[in-house]
Amino acid sequence: MTAPSLWQPFTLGRLELPHRLALAPMTRNRAETDGTPGDLVAEYYGQRASLGLIITEGTQPSDDGQGYFGTPGIYTEQHIAGWRKVADTVHANGGALYIQLMHAGRISHPDNTPHHRQPVAPSAINPEQEMFTATGPQPIPTPRELSVAEIQSTIAEFRHAAASAIAAGADGVEIHGANGYLLHQFLSPNANHRKDSYGGNVENRSRFAIEVAQAVAEEIGADRVGIRLSPAMPLGGLDEGDTETVRLQYHHLVGELAKLQLAFLHVHHVGDDELLRSLREAWPTAVLVVRYGRGREQIADDIDAGLADIAPLGRFALANPDVVERLRAGAPLNELDPATLYVGGAAGYTDYPVLTPA
Known about the structure:
two-stranded antiparallel ribbon; 10 helices; 17% strand; globular
């Protein structure tokens, strides 16, 4: 059985959540070729609505923001219409929907984007990674450095995407500032070599993320906005420096973001428990924490330790649309099929079995 703390109700922003679980954002590559989420996407999220807070996969705010093949967008009328079906299905099944806004930055390839242009980044530094495309894995090209004017345009794209999410019926958005993508690239000294006000020191490297959050909060209300961070996460070729450098960066960033009174801070935690506790202490609203390799008996550990309010589920929820019911009952969990994570179609997406009533 799972800890009693998981089943306590919680108020997050404008939402009254029935428990302390949520769906973590996970890329699944099932959007239509124009980035519109179709009926299968609505079915997938609707199946998992008992998790309460549904945070979607990374969703690009613009053509430049797309990194992977088959990821959804939220910046055209077609995208809005597709996401409206998702929101309606989630709501009809008792859940709430936050759309994650993700600009991939340099983690992209021209073959995966609508305009087939060079990726953009804080600096023209190659991540030395491969990207999967329709023709197989290809080396990621060196990105183009964004001008200051283009940075302002990108912030406006986040603002427009947030407004589009609300127009689609979503309850809010999560800004993706983690896992090696554009906001994280600005934070990382080895990806951001800028000499202007967006690079060079902790305050300047934080500026882009703060301005994105300010714009989105102004557009739709701070209590409908969360942000995801992953201090020291070495994805996408990033290296944020030694422990002290990382702590200085995130103490400043989170301190500034805390002033905005966003609905939540979502930490993808990779091991610095002292930093996690200090961020928790600095944050005035809800904190979500997700960790790699957490077993079902550890789901509530961060809540019980006072480090988190909500525990988002990834792999467990992916393979078990009724994971809430299974955890409540102490029932066995389906095993994840890694071969079907990104292949498209219903297999490994909407066809995982649910418990059969006794």
